[in-house]
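TL;DR need structure tokens for one chain.
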Amino acid sequence: MAIVVPYRESIQYDGTNGSYIIGTWVTGATDFVSDNGTTLTWENEENAIRTVNVGGWVIKRSDTDGDPEQLTNAEYLERYVELP
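>> reply
TL;DR here they are.
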């Protein structure tokens, strides 16, 4: 019997990696809007604006996720356990 979990990958926004997160790490239908070193902003596949603040997390459900989830650090720690 196999044990499976829903696929998720996460990356923490540190104020310097916004263009990498949206331009390279997220390969779905998202558009980079801005990164001012405090807040990362992007547009998802449905033309909705999403933001994450420094220390927050971006979660994708697949390599081509067009609407990655954004969470604060507290929300991330409450909802997820990182696997080795």
